[in-house]
Amino acid sequence: MIFVDRLFSIKFNSVIPNLLLASAYPGEKDPDAHKIRTREIVNAGVQVVVNLMEVEELKTFTPYQDTILQHAKEGIIH
To answer: What's the pTM value of the predicted model, to 2 decimals?
Structure first.
């Protein structure tokens, strides 16, 4: 089942409702869009991100780890 929350730009699958979500890679090439997307992840209450991509696959994507950690340190912003 795919959910699109009006507050979030991220489409995700609720694998286990309110517990486990699955989505596409959370990075964006545009720096502003990247900050918004990663902020939405933190604001949604996500505490753990598991990336199943191979190291070689990651080379073409914008890294999100540091940005999400920075948002987490800032806390949830509504």
So the answer is: 0.74
| Lookup result for tokens 């933190």 | 42
Q: What are the DSSP calls for 7-39, one per residue? A: T-S-EEEEEETTTEEEES----SSHHHHHHHHH
Q: Which residues are 34's β-sheet partners?
A: none
Written as six digits, the tokens of 29 are 């090439």
User: What is the spatial distance between Cα 47 and Cα 76, in angstroms, rounded to a whole number?
Assistant: 11
Confidence tier at 77 by pLDDT (50, 70, 90):
confident
Which token pair is 77?
């912003």
